[in-house]
């Protein structure tokens, strides 16, 4: 009996903008001038937030902080594709996601400043609290998608994680469950090449992370994660497919973490400086500026105006954050359970 | 009123809850067509369909993790873990997320899920099918841990658990599944969580026991003036019932089938020592399994506390 080929697969990579800002017109998503400018503002806002958070950390005004520098397009582009009714399960390095969704900026500072009250998502906004535990929130996304289908809600669920998370058991269990039950989940991997000091080559022997979806019975795509329009387009298509009952998608945003893992890390111990330099020319903000300039939507004055506006918004958020009185010891007890047990009541009284 | 065993009583509680509230859904391995390996979910798949009785892939972390997402979305998931010994793969989900979701989100999201699982030794099953690791879970703030003693209470406690706003771990003593039959009302009732019951009143010594050790303890105390307390909910523990009993008896014996060291008996002993020191007339004694993994069938009877060990502890404490 001859051997036969049972399966072959291909993984596509989507890029719409080249580093010079030239676009492939056949792939351009249909976004208005206002929407394109909104995207630009959100990229600027994310970068401004990030720089301010790093400065606040150095001044001791917030705690350890994980920079999003270089990953703005992956976050803003994907989040811009979400509907307000969709549910979102973030990891911990997605401040661009939160800012795009309209999460109160002062609450982001509050959380990184060590005040858990910053994690209280505003009512009507379906964003789960930040998950510091790597990859364990992927099954939650599958569960919410299952619940939505049982309820008859035509929504999609998006969940964010990094390349390191793809090594975890919960990555497999979450994707496998979503595939087996054909759930409306979009798995958004920000492959930023490094899990603290461990490079992608030590994370997996697979040439792409997108191809991992194949084993779970659904499609995976790699997008240029520094191309905000490519990320937007891929996410939008995956979300629409999910809402229409077409099942899950894995999107690998191929990007790069320009900064240290967190403010407690020193990437120069494990990363060559020329590697960072090679990615500098692929800066997501720079590339989108070049594209907008070609469209007649951008010039230096406009950039300065947007940077000023973002700085003002961040200033205001920092003022608001720092005006919030610190939580009291009694507040530790307020959200541990719907009702306090007698033992907890007496523990609360002792501390209050 | 029908005479039911615990499997049937739990099945009835689930059936009623699902009929009453369409948010209640069951998920787990083999819970659908097969009706669960102990038949606890028998017939529910036929009655409520595959969207509400969901056979999942063989993946405990995914089962509990998905249940967390479902609960946060607004459903009332009942996740079945086939045996307590298999829950360790989902320990991360339970500790990292289920019990912390309300705190972490400052009350914006909650996690009203019930995890049901057979627990305890004495059914002559393979390794990891007879675990009694309740103390691991009682240490977790935010988790309610329930051990039903028999059919009537199992139905009422499970109904209460299904209305509880936070995660509940429901440990079903496997050895009792078909051992006891009781009258179980078909109408809806609840047995409140967090409250112990005095199973047998007495004046000379207080004995606390739960799960499959409860029945063994009741047999062992025949002829003693012993008050037997069944906590039913281990966490949060009902200290008030214990302390009221100690005020009367002044003596305490705790019986559990989990290993001695760090077992939940240690917590009860600490509560008694801190809150009832001056009422005590003798040492607090624990009758427990040795600090060993649960052995297989040929040795399990040597592992589980025996009636003579319980009586020896009673005799010792009554000497004071």
From TrEMBL, chain A:
Enzyme class, first EC level, given as a word: oxidoreductase
EC number(s) recorded for this UniProt protein: 1.2.4.1
Residues annotated as domain Dehydrogenase E1 component: 43-328
Key word Transmembrane helix present: no
Source organism superkingdom: Bacteria
InterPro entries, sorted: Alpha-ketoacid_DH_E1_comp, DH_E1, PdhA/BkdA, THDP-binding
Reported function: The pyruvate dehydrogenase complex catalyzes the overall conversion of pyruvate to acetyl-CoA and CO(2). It contains multiple copies of three enzymatic components: pyruvate dehydrogenase (E1), dihydrolipoamide acetyltransferase (E2) and lipoamide dehydrogenase (E3).
PANTHER family: 2-OXOISOVALERATE DEHYDROGENASE SUBUNIT ALPHA, MITOCHONDRIAL (PTHR43380)
Assembly: Heterodimer of an alpha and a beta chain.
Name of this chain's protein: Pyruvate dehydrogenase E1 component subunit alpha
Gene source species: Geotalea uraniireducens
Encoding gene, per UniProt annotation: bkdA
TrEMBL record, chain B:
Keywords: Oxidoreductase, Thiamine pyrophosphate
Residues annotated as domain Transketolase-like pyrimidine-binding: 4-179
Named cofactor requirement(s): thiamine diphosphate
UniProt entry tagged with the keyword Ribosomal protein: no
InterPro entries given in the database record: THDP-binding, Transketo_C/PFOR_II, Transketolase-like_Pyr-bd, Transketolase_C
Official protein name in the record: 2-oxoisovalerate dehydrogenase subunit beta
């Amino acid at each position: 009996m001859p051997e036969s080929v049972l399966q072959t697969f291909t993984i596509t990579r989507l890029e719409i903008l080249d580093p010079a800002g030239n676009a492939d017109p056949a792939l351009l998503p249909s976004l208005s001038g206002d929407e394109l400018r909104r995207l630009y503002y959100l990229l600027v806002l994310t970068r401004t937030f990030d720089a301010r958070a790093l400065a606040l950390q150095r001044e001791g005004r917030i705690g350890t902080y994980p920079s999003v520098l270089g990953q703005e397009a992956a976050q803003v582009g994907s989040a811009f594709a979400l509907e307000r009714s969709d549910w979102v399960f973030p990891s911990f390095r997605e401040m661009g996601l939160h800012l795009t969704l309209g999460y109160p900026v002062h609450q982001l500072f509050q959380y990184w400043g060590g005040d858990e009250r910053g994690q209280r998502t505003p009512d009507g906004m379906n964003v789960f609290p930040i998950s510091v535990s790597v990859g364990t929130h992927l099954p939650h996304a599958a569960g919410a998608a299952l619940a939505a289908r049982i309820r008859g809600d035509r929504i999609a669920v998006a969940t964010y994680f990094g390349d390191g998370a793809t090594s975890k058991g919960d990555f497999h269990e979450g994707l496998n469950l979503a595939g087996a039950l054909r759930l409306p989940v979009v798995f958004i991997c920000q492959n930023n090449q490094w899990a603290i000091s461990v490079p992608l080559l030590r994370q997996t022997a697979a040439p792409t992370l997108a191809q991992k979806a194949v084993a779970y019975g659904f499609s995976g795509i790699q997008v240029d994660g520094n191309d905000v329009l490519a990320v937007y387009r891929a996410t939008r298509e995956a979300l629409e497919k999910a809402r229409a009952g077409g099942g899950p998608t894995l999107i690998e945003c191929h990007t790069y973490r320009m900064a240290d893992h967190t403010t407690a890390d020193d990437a120069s111990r494990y990363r060559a400086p020329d590697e960072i330099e090679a990615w500098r020319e692929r800066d997501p903000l720079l590339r989108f500026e070049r594209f907008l300039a070609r469209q007649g939507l951008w010039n230096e004055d406009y950039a300065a105006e947007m940077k000023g506006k973002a700085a003002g918004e961040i200033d205001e958020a920092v003022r608001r954050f720092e005006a919030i009185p610190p939580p009291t010891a009694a507040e530790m007890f307020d959200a541990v359970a719907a009702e306090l047990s007698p033992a907890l009541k007496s523990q609360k009284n002792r501390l209050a | 009123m029908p005479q039911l065993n615990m499997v049937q009583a739990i099945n009835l509680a689930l059936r009623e809850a699902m009929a009453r509230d369409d948010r209640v859904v069951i998920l787990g391995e083999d819970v659908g067509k097969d009706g669960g390996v102990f038949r606890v979910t028998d017939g529910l798949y036929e009655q409520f369909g595959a969207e509400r009785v969901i056979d999942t892939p063989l993946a405990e972390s995914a089962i509990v993790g998905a249940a967390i997402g479902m609960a946060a979305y607004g459903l009332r998931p009942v996740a079945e873990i086939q045996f307590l010994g298999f829950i360790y793969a989902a320990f991360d989900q339970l500790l990292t997320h289920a019990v912390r979701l309300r705190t972490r989100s400052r009350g914006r999201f909650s996690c009203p899920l019930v995890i049901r699982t057979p627990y305890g030794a004495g059914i002559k099953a393979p390794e990891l099918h007879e675990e009694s690791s309740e103390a691991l879970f009682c240490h977790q703030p935010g988790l309610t841990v329930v051990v039903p003693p028999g059919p009537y209470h199992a139905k009422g406690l499970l109904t209460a658990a299904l209305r509880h706003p936070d995660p509940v771990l429901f440990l079903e003593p496997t050895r009792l599944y078909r051992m006891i039959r009781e009258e179980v009302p078909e109408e809806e009732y609840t047995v409140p969580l967090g409250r112990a019951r005095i199973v047998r009143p007495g004046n000379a010594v207080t004995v606390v026991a739960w799960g499959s050790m409860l029945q063994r303890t009741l047999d062992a105390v025949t002829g003693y003036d012993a008050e037997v307390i069944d906590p039913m909910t281990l966490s949060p523990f009902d200290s008030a019932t214990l302390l009221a009993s100690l005020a009367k008896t002044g003596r305490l014996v705790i019986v559990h089938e989990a290993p001695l060291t760090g077992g939940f008996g240690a917590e009860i002993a600490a509560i008694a020592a801190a809150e009832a020191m001056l009422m005590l007339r003798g040492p607090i004694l624990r009758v427990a399994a040795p600090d060993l993994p649960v052995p297989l069938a040929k040795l399990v009877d040597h592992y589980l506390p025996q009636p003579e060990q319980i009586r020896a502890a009673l005799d010792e404490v009554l000497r004071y």
